[in-house]
Amino acid sequence: MQSYPLDITRIPFSCRRSRCMVFYEDKGAPLDAENGLYLSQSTEGMLGGGAQFYRNKDYLLLTPEKEGKPLEYTWGATTSGVRMLTGEGELSMTFAGDGSLRIFGDGPALLITAKMGFGDVAEKKGETAEIRMDGTSFTMIPVTGSVTVDSHYDLLTYRYTDPVIRFLPDNGKLEIAVFDRSFDGTVRESRPFAECRAETEEAFAAFRKKLTGTEDACVEESYSLWIGPKAFPGFEGDVYPSNVITAVYPRAAEQPVLSLAFRDTDEAFGLITKFAPFITKGGLLPEQASGSRRLYQTASMDHGLAVLELLANGEPSEEQCRKLYDMLATVDEWWVRNRSSDGGISFFYAFRYESGSVSDGIFSAGTPVTAPDLAARMVLQAEALSRLADRIGLTEAAERWQKAAEGRLGYLKENLWKDGRFAARTAEGVAGGVSALCCVPAILGPRLPEYMRQALAETLTGELLIPGRGIRTGAGETDTVLTCLLAAGLIAGGQRDAGEKLLEAVAEAEKAFGLAATYPETGEADCRCAGQYTPAVCAAKLYADSKSR
Amino acid sequence: MFGTHEKYDLKRPAYARRGTGFYLYEDFYENVIRLSCYKSGEMSSRSPFQFDVRLFGDGAEQKYEYFADARSLRADCAAGFGEFALTDEDHIRIRGTTELRLCLRPAIPEDGTSACRGLVKLENGEWEGAFGKFGMLRIRMLRGTVKVTAPWNNGTGRYDEVTFSFLPEDGLFEAAIFEDMTEFGELPETLPDFDEVKEENQRSFEEFKKHYRKAPDEFAELAEYAMWLIWSHTTKAIGGYKEPMIMMHYQWFIGAISWQQSYNAMAMQNDAKEAWRLLCTMFEHQSEETGALAFAVSYFGGAIGGSPQPPFQGLALTFLYDIFGDELFTYDGCAYLYPKYRKWLDFWFTRRSAGRGDDVTAVLSSHEAGWDDASIFNDGFPAENPDVMSYIALGMEGMSRMARVLHLYAESEEWMRRSRKLIDTIVSEYWDGEKFVTRVHGKPVESMSLVCYQPIILGYRLPQHIIDKVAEKVTDEKLFLSPYGVTGESMMSPLSGYGNRFILGRVVAPLNMMISVGLSLAGKTKEAALIARRFCRRCDEKGCLLGFAPYDYYPLTGEKVPDLDEFENMPVPSDGWPWATWSACNVMTMLTYVLPRENREEKER
Questions:
Q1: At what angle do helices A372-391 and A318-339 cross, to 10 degrees?
Q2: CB contact under 8 A, B380 and A152
Q3: For B53, which of A327, B33, B134, B333 could close a Cys bridge (C-beta 3.0–4.6 Å)?
Q4: SS3 B120
């Protein structure tokens, strides 16, 4: 089994079975935080949204110590472990099969400090240390060694004082088991570090086989998809949050993109249908859902694209096809009823956010606006429904949906193509300007005539492409998921060179800044708290890369 | 009731209605009425989803005065008036004779119009606004027109302003603004007449008042305000609220806090059914795994986790039994509550056991006692505190009564035995001759907290010498009894603070209620009434505030209280600023139970 180097300033070290994460913060100053190695958890949180990286809370600073004095250290990380190397020995971390983060020390003690908020508690319970912060619980058990906890409730500030927790070695040896919950059991079973690490390596390697992608490339992307899924109230099984650190809630629009990274079609379909239980009575698919929050607004999403791609490459079960058919038919019906004035041939955005890009040029003449990106997605959605209907034996429905797809495609080509490009329409006329959303029809690939594909390729590699970043949206930044999906569409449509150019820009951005959902058009990208390599962006890149091979 | 020339304005209380989503209040800084919706749970000091109400005449902004009661809120200016009538059907009605503008203005200026995600005019002429996590609005004109001013700024990615201008036609405009956190279904085609809406509001309030006994004439006006506050802060069964519950605030702690539902139940001494229903509401939000009741319930969150609150339901159950007798415990009610209450008690006996092998418990945080800054927690945790044990002892007595109704006679006996035993333990091990003590690792905590006398809630169950001592101490004007009621910490305590504190010094409603009710139950009805009257008179003067500074200086040192103004006279989520239902319900209990019993000699049984 192999471990791969991991830059934990850009992506946290974590594990599929645990919420615990370890990352190195090297830009702590804007957060009023020390630079250093942090232990945190991917938790939605109760008060104010959880461990959001602008809040500098719920993070435990890890510092090696000797006789009460902090030690200088260097660190290294791979996909199976993190090491802190000091002049007095080292501390190594990996995950064990029981989901605990295991910290092994050979020499130093370990100091853990944190900043407490209202309602947070740090205490010693028996022989263990427990910290409860804003929906997160750390139970830290010294399997070898001992622990002291210095924190008390301060009446005047209504909170516990910032804790000072020390794990002290026994004859120079330390082993700590860190659980991501209140844990009433006892853990005295020591696990050899090498054994735990091997388990982690094995688990990651097995997971990578499920993804599209080559053996040694796209390690961070695969890793992000491996550590990503967490349990969220209301969801069956684990689901991917938008970001394990900065946006710890699932987003509906990201699920189809995530599905594109998986070889197993049933598993991929299962990701998309996670959101089905949240669809409202009226058929609205909410953009965000989590235990305590819903954002009941919707956006045009890439379900059609994902389903068609997955059906072309896999054999999903009838059960999954049925579930997905019901879900997409409901979503389609919502758009027909609420955002179409011709019974489902053309569609409009009533609100800017429904496009996912509020400052795009398609809104230059206001709303409601009939937009090419929405039109393209609705073409693919109808086509996907046709294929699904076919799979589950609904022949008449399959024909009906195919006709709808053709009608929608016809509308797009005849009504939204003007002067050599796709353009949006309002009641006042054509919305002006070159716009990323107007190029989204590239995802239709060979469904468009050659001259349209050619024009799209030129625009996307011309004025809309920011070199070393990606496709420019209207908000002074680029959108990496969109860039990857467009790249895949261009390649599928025979515009391989253009598609590769887009992917090159993403690769350069990744090298410079890590893989981010957006990059500013100029200047440094904001990378803090290892909040790069978000799952959806990683999935989009894996998918696009698979197209370019 | 409220207004520019009334006893109270709407700077401290929010103006609302039972079952409403919308509320209004007067902005402290700009003296303008503002409109918002509570459901997102965002505090008004942070929320970007708030609209100024401004009146215009011939294009010029007009200064206005306002008056509000249960029926409506009306703002009058030289050019005409604008009026709001809330409903419990997810919309607000507005009418007026001059231009009325609703201008989106965030609490934090930098947020701009970020609350507004989009606006669109629908085919039927109505306007729909999408406000992200704050929900949706739909504006329907019934008469007159609405002009929407919302220029988009591509640079900022939001609107430069969002203003709805309601314009009269033939001298009058009328509109309905609907709100929904999810999506709009079929909205009602016809709506009742505006004046009918107003009358329905009044009728609803009058009906609600029947839950309460009559207050003494001296306090009739205070009682009216207190009942109005509770009525207006009652939700309907919507969102996370499976049943109507009583929120503490609309603007600050925007949820139904667990133990406060039982405080409210205690006040409803004229309606056993409603009192019982309210007491039971939190048991719909009980953890399957641990049996703990959630800390609070909110619209979006359903049950909010965090630290469980104390098992105050024990006091409420026994108190209400003393009021209603067997009428309180119906068979079906007991069949519902008995297993759930057992599970709640089991949480305390298993997860908060003091480890002695009996029913003595120990809390792990101050929030579990409900007293965030009580000096009984000076020595940390786990803390064996007799105030919580008292709730548990009373809870077991309640269980005994419920078991009897359910024909579980053996269990009934056992619960009563355990209740008595715990009370014996509280008396023998946690009374030091002068006060009840909290113990940490067996050692008594040095404290001058009023909570040291809180076990008086056991009332007649306590030995007379303890009752006498408690009455003596809490009515000592050098120690606890201030002009406005009893302080949460002795005035002779160096820890006592009157500014940014909860019970570590200030005079707060729940403790005044508990001490006065306990004394009354114990036969010390005059002492009880003394305390209750002082607190209620202060509320009569200042409004249903949660707490007061007893003085603007510290009697111990003579120093002035440095931060009093900040926490009592500015719009902050403190005890001293906003009206709170937690105060109102305690006021009602004092007015309708403690004061009428003033001249009774015998102990309540």
A1: 140
A2: yes
A3: B33
A4: strand
Query: Could you tell me whether strands B99-104 and B163-167 are parallel, antiparallel, or unpaired per DSSP bridges?
Result: antiparallel
Q: Kindly list the domain boundaries of chain B, sorted by start residue.
A: 2-202, 210-597
d(CA B153, CA B133): 21
Q: What's the rounded Cα separation, in Å, for the pair A154 and B254?
A: 25
CATH number, domain containing residue A178: 2.70.98
For B505, the closest chain A residue by CA position comes to A156
Q: Hey, are the CB atoms on A350 and B120 less than 8 Å from each other?
A: yes
Same domain, A135 and A255: no
Which two three-digit tokens encode residue B250? 């609309």
If asked whether residues A174 and A234 sit together in one domain, one would say: no
Residues A193 and A213 in one domain: no
Cβ neighbours of A292 in B, within 8 Å: 298, 300-302, 304
Buried (b) or exposed (e) across A153-185, using 16+ Cβ within 10 A?
bebeebbbeebebbbbbeeeebbbbbbbeebee
Q: Which residues of chain B are at the A interface, by a Cβ-Cβ cutoff of 8 Å?
A: 117-120, 128, 130, 132-133, 135-136, 152, 154, 157-158, 181-183, 185, 298, 300-302, 304-307, 364-367, 372-375, 377-378, 380-381, 495, 497, 502, 504
In terms of residue numbers, what domain contains A544? 209-548
Question: In whole angstroms, what is the distance from residue A256 CA to residue A439 CA?
Answer: 20
Q: Say how far apart CA B203 and CA B18 lie, in whole Å.
A: 11
Which numeric CATH code is attached to B2-202?
2.70.98
Decide: A535 and A240 in contact? Cβ < 8 Å.
Answer: yes
**A64: enclosing H helix or E strand:** strand A60-66
Looking at the 3D structure of chain A, how many domains does it have? 2
ipTM comes to 0.87
pLDDT tens digits, A174-196: 999 999 887 766 666 788 899 99
pLDDT tens digits, A325-339: 999 999 999 999 999
Same domain, A214 and A323: yes
Contact at 8 Å (CB) between B292 and B308? Answer: yes
Last residue of a domain, one of A174, A202, A230: A202
Q: Where are the alpha helices (DSSP H) in A130-246?
A: 193-208, 219-227
Q: Is B155 exposed, middle or buried (0-12, 13-18, 19+ CB in 10 A)?
A: exposed
- Say which amino acid occupies A284: L
Q: Which residues of chain A have pLDDT under 70?
A: 1, 45-58, 184-188, 214-216, 291-292, 432
Q: Could you say which of A293, A297, A363 has the minimum Cβ distance to residue B117?
A: A297
Q: How far is CA A249 from CA A233, A240, A288, in A?
A: 10, 8, 7
Beta strands in B296-430 (DSSP E): 296-298, 302-304, 383-384
